[in-house]
Amino acid sequence: xxxxxxxxxxxxxxxxxxxSVGWLxxxxxxxxxxxxDLGAAxxxxxxxASQRLGSVTLGTHECAFCPPNSAFEGNGEYRYYxxxxxxYVAPMMxxxxxxxxxxxxxxxxxxxxxxxxRLEWDWRAERMLAVLLDESEDFDFRCEAIIDLVNxxxxxxxxxxxxxxxxxxxxxxxxxxxxxSLGVLxxxxxxxxxxxxSLPEMVRIGLGQIVPQ
Length: 213
Ligand SMILES: [Zn+2]
Description:
- The mean pLDDT is 92.
- The strands form 2 sheets. The protein has a 3-stranded mixed sheet with strand order 1-5-4, covered by helices on one side.
- It folds into 2 domains: 19-113, no CATH class; 123-210, no CATH class.
- It is mostly helical and 213 residues long.
- The chain is 40% helix and 8% strand.
- It has helices spanning 40-49, 94-101, 107-113, 123-133, 139-148, 155-164, 168-187, 201-210, and strands at 19-20, 61-62, 73-74, 77-81, 87-91.
- It has 8 helices and 5 strands; from the N terminus they run βαββββααααααα.
- The longest helix is centred in the C-terminal third of the chain and has 20 residues, at 168-187.
- Bound molecules: zinc ion.
- Zinc ion (ZN) is lined by residues 63, 65-66, 72, 96, 100-101.
- Zinc ion (ZN) binds next to helix 2.
């Protein structure tokens, strides 16, 4: 898959409109290169913001710029929720493109990363919350909402995650993601009293990956 930077993401359906960053390929080459290197601070911000992969059920992508027989492969995507209201989505390979092939993401994306992590509860959060809680919603949407809701620091997120544990189908398919999201909340001190032993096994496994029990 190859898209121009900042174009509307249309690789697959998603509950919120997003813009593409770093979907590089042979047609447009290493976009944004231009010889201007990324500074250490920008690199670190990108790494820090690229921690949690979503949509890992997507197929694997092979780097078009590595030698054919030893090309780097990636799977899944990172999503970045800016305070401006924009959402950017990059393939897992964005870090490889940056480190190995001189890729420089667009300026507005780099600027947006500077104040990531301090989001106000907004329409995007409302949308993701509604998606997760609505059993009639697209199942894949609900699984992605489990991942992305932790971008907001708000009690409604913990409530929604605990509610999703009652949903057998969600636990079967995305119990580990529920656990990892709970782990994020635990790690930042948003959970008072979590009775770990009462959680389904898959949820406990995911939780243990973020906060070892
Ligand atoms: Zn490569």
